[in-house]
Structures are given as structure tokens and as C-alpha cells.
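Incident log, structure service

09:12 report received: a user says their structure output differs between two submissions of the same chain.
09:20 pulled the input from the user's history:
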Amino acid sequence: MSEIERFLKARDFLLANRGDYETAYRDFRWPELDRFNWALDYFDSMARGNDKPALLIVEEDGSRQELSFRQLSERSSQVANYLRQLGVRRGDCILLMMGNEAPLWELMLAAIKLGAVISPATTLLTSNDLADRIRRGNVKVVVTRNVEKFAAIPHAFTGITLGTPVADWHGYEDSLRASTSFVPEGETHAEDPLFLYFTSGTTAQPKLVLHSHQSYPVGHLSTMYWLGLQQGDIHWNISSPGWAKHAWSCFFAPWNAAATVFIYNYARFSATDVLQALVRHGVSTLCAPPTVWRMLIQEKLADYPVRLREVIGAGEPLNPEIIEQIRNAWGITIRDGYGQTETTAQIGNTPGALLKPGSMGRPLPGYRIELLDVDGQPAAEGEICLDLRHRPLGLMRGYAGDEEKSAEVVREGYYHTGDVASRDADGYITYVGRADDVFKASDYRISPFELESVLIEHPAVAEAAVVPSPDPMRLAVPKAFIVLAAGHEPSRETARDIFRFAREKLASFKRIRRIEFSELPKTISGKIRRVDLRKQEESRSPGAERGSLEFFEEDS
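09:34 re-ran on a clean worker, output below:
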């Protein structure tokens, strides 16, 4: 059996058992691959004579661009030949910094065909960020519209601009003159490097996550299964390029299922516009981060006759309140899941399976999950770890250039995620928090996520982040930083009502003792930086004056 046959056998098994978790989990096996190039071996063969839409991009003004699988196959071969003409060779690193536009998908496919290494970058990066990435990633080629951000960076790379011609930069449109027939130079080994992701993280210096030609292209079979994708789906993943989740759900997972990738570009997020786009374009599957879902549920969802079959949350755990509101409006259950830049989807609520409120589901096919306590022993609550006796194909090769960090997360037969969860008797896993987010108050362990999930049920609360606040009596007490929903004022009365609500919903030792109305610090990928809020509280001197929008429970 050839490599492509093994890949297709594994893919088809998951598609056939999309509604039968027990069978899929028990019997799935990762394909054994030696030489494999996903773009050449799979995408091109699937695209041959295939005029079904692969990519549909709709702009705010209603204009649209649609490319078929065949067109993208041919166009990416042109781009691969063009890059080769510019001197790009196997193993060279290409930094891609652009928005959701067709060249991004063309370049991704082209780089895979060449055997080049892709380093995706968000357009939000500063010149200093980019200089660091170019240096640490040994970047040979940069492709962008934002040429001005590279002006002060030593020009040791080949620059390709997508926009107005710039001196000393090549024009991407020149690739249109290249041949549509591509002949690879040598074979691609499955373990050859393919992606260099700089994690957004909370550390001063992002880590370089290295993925291979199998860990992401093939590893995302687990993601395809979790999303519940099928051939012919129109799949919309609301995500910006530059992040791993974009490759997850805007590239590999949908195209592994031969589904259409849908993109709606907007200058400013509007819940109404998003809902109208869902209806207008017949989107069948939608994946969005919790922040987007929190905004959508502020609208009258029942007024929008969507044709959605699957709705998914990703990036951070979903609060149960969001799940309930979506179900009440559309009669479908939004499903949660879990994964990291370092992996593909590890845990998820899968199509057709029982969903337990608050749980992010069960281990996905191909992943063996163990929860380990502080002594490294299996426990009902502990750090989420991957059992490397059954090494999942979706796990990274390691952190590029950092053997110490790689050894820190892969040790004693496990990959350590740094996230804490609990598992019930049925195998369902519930997120507790980052290992460094969980704290003690009055000697009780407090999960910020658990408290935040209760707070968001209050109609005045749009977003919340809970951290420990120093207290002379209890050592620390839970403090909530809250973003209010539209129509609510940051007043003593609002705080009093939220305190009352929390008292009714939470055990006494979990009660919110302090509230501050404030914007939440976030990473540029949109995840809440609780570490910043925690440091802010820790730095407060005893007896420090309260902020003007800070309230204590004893006041209510």
C-alpha cells in the first residue's frame, strides 16, 4: 500500500465513523508514512479535473473570488516554480505575512510542494517582532503587503510584495508567467520540517514550534473529525492568518475532507454582518473563538435562518451559557474542543455524541490522554499529558533551537501541555485552567475558568477574567475583571447585582470577593492574559486605594 493510500484509508475511516465516536476512537490508527508531500501526493491528485470550489472569499462590499481545487493546484504550481526561480530551495524558510487573500493559500500549497519551511506571521506584528523572527527563524524569503514594516530590517532576505511595486522587492504578480507544470526536486520525507510557528504565549520571547510534513497535514485528521467536516461542506473558521488555528481550520482540516474554505473579510467585526453572511452564503459549518460567540449571542439569533449543521468553539474553553443560548436559538449544540499550537486537536465533543455542559469532551482518535498529578501519577484531576507510547502524529517535532524547552515538555514518556483538567467516570474531560492560573484562596483550589463560566451567565457580563487578589485574612480572594455587555453601566449597583448573582451560584469558598470593571489584556491572538492581571494584583501594596471602578463584596 502506498503512502497516499494509507493516508486516504485513515481519512476515509474517520469520515465513515463521524457519528460513532467509540468505533472511531478504538479502531483509528495513524497512517505509517515515510515519504509524503501533502500538496503533491494528496491535494494535486484530489484536484485533478475537480472544479468544485476550494476557496470562496467574500469582501465587505459583496465582491467575491472563488477558486476551484483544480485552479488552486495549477496556480500553486506556478507559484512554486516562481519561488524556485528566485532561488528558494528545500528547507528554506518563507515568512508569510498577509491577510485572508487568495495568494496566502497559493503560497502555502507552493511552499509545501517545494519542501520549503513556512513561518506564518500576523499583520499585527511590529518591526521589532519581525526582525526577531527573521533572525531566529533564519528566514530566506518574506512575502507581504506591509513592506514598510521591513524597511529598517537588514535586507538579508528575498522580498516579494503583493501590492504596489517597491524597489528591491519582487512582485508576486510575476508568478503568473511561470509554468503550471511543477516537477519536484527530490522526495519529501514525512519528518522533514514544514512549519515554524512563533507562539503568542505569555512569555517575553515566543517559542518556535516546529512541525513536519506529517504532523500538521496528516495530524489534522483529528481536527477534521472533531469539526465534523464532510465533502461539499462550506466551512467558515473565523481566524486571522498567522496563527496555528488558521492552518487548522482554514487549510488542512477542510481540505482533508474536500470541503470549501469560506472567508468573509471585514474591516471591523459586526455580529449582524457575520450572521447575515452565514445565511447569505449557506455556510454549513462554523468555527469561532469564544470572543466571537460572546458577541453573537448579544443578537437575536433566532431571526437568522442559518443552515448550519456544525458549530464549534475554539481557542479557549466555552462557557456553558454560550452553549445554551445557541441551542435555544438554532436548535444545534455548539461543540468545544482542545488543542495547542504544538499539536492538532487533542480533545473534543464530537458530532452526535452526548455533550456534558462545561466539558470539552473526550480524547480524539489518535490521542491517548493522561491526567497527571504533581507527582507524575495518573489522577482524576491533573495536567493534560499525551502518552508517548502511542505518540500522536499531530505532535510537533519540538521547539526549534531550544533543546532545554523541548526536554521540559517531553519527559518520562509524556508530552506535558501545561493545562490542568479533570476527568469524570465517563471519560469526559473538563478544563480547569493553565497550571499557573489555578490558585488557592482560604486553602481551597480555585479554577478561574469555573468562576468565569458562572459570571458570564449574568446578563450584564460580556467577558470576565478571575485572578487571585492578596488578602490579609485569606491569603488571596477571587477577583473578577469584567467587561460589561452593551447597555450596562459600570456602577456600584451593577457590581452589587453581580455579587448577589455569584453568591447564589457559587459555593461560599468560591465566591467572588472583588470586582473591577475594566478592559481585559489579551495576546494578539485574542486570548486573555490573566498573568498580567495577576501581576497587577500582586504588585498592589497593602491598604492601596481602590480604583474608581473597583468594588468589594462587603460593600454590597
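09:41 both user submissions now match this output. Likely a transient worker issue. Closing.
09:42 reviewer note: The chain has a mean pLDDT of 92. The domain at 444-555 is CATH 3.30.300.30 (GMP Synthetase; Chain A, domain 3).
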